[in-house]
Amino acid sequence: MFFESVKDSDLKRELWKNIIVVDNDVEKSAPRLVPLNEILDTDIEAEVVHVGNEFNSYEMGSYNILSIYNEHELIRDDQYFMLHDTVLLQHNFYEIISAFFDNEFKDKIIQYKSPSSNIRIIGDKHVKEYGLQYDRPFTKEEAICLEIGEEITSFSVNDFYSFNKHEDTICLGKAPRVGRKPIYTKSLRRRIILMKEFAIEKYVLFGWRNEFSHKKIERNILY
Q: Mean pLDDT across the stretch 21-37?
């Protein structure tokens, strides 16, 4: 789903090497450049960076990897766009998103109003600030608490870095819901959230009974 939309977008093939694929709850592995068909059943010929995160950390797995391998040659950068495999890029993705990748926004956090699935642009500055806070397992409920900034009895968001309340944060407003569509199974339709300023569509299970389950998010994507 995600990589088919990448193929159809204006992101040139040589820039695919900037895509970092993080697999959660697998054997820990350092960043390495791999053919896409080594980690995905696809006929798309491209190379991406792959990293194994040993924890089931949901969206926070990719944040953790950025900190652990912050100085690695395949990871080190000024800015990062935190994504998911349940995202579709629009055809003009690179034209739109590249406007944020300059010095004006280098030390900014750019995101939509929560809930936003922890999708945002962050700077290397912020990776260094949160450090190893996400180097641990999270339940889905805990990951959602971090996303929306609300606590539960057994989990305090005050113990963690706040992107939503950070002085560097630029909020793009509330992303509208624009429909429903199944992506993995025909019987389960997801809400489509349009993040127009990022040129992406996010497919979300709102109110689904497994939303707070322990089922893992197996794969994170960042650019």
A: 93
